[in-house]
Design goal:
82 residues; mainly alpha; 2 helices; rod-shaped
Length: 82
């Protein structure tokens, strides 16, 4: 009888300590999900910043290329006149 009571007590302690609704810190299991969402938001913001800077750099490069093309066109027109 003592073994049965000890076994039931042991199982009860194991079930309470392994409660799936709580993690080791005592916070609800939803906390890791919140952290993941925050990290995803942070990554999304950083990605948007990188895309914006890339677009700005590409725009500047296109403007420079356009200016060089105009200069080359003018030079070709002058060369054709001669």
């Amino acid at each position: 009888m003592k073994k049965t009571i000890l076994a039931v007590a042991f199982v009860a302690i194991a079930m309470v300590s392994c409660d799936p609704k709580k993690n080791n810190t005592g916070d609800p299991v939803e906390a890791p999900g919140t952290e993941v969402e925050q990290k995803i938001d942070t990554v999304a913001q950083k990605t948007e910043e990188v895309v914006d800077t890339t677009k700005a750099k590409a725009g500047e490069a296109l403007e420079k290329a356009g200016e060089k093309t105009e200069e080359a066109g003018k030079e070709l027109k002058e060369a054709a006149k001669k």
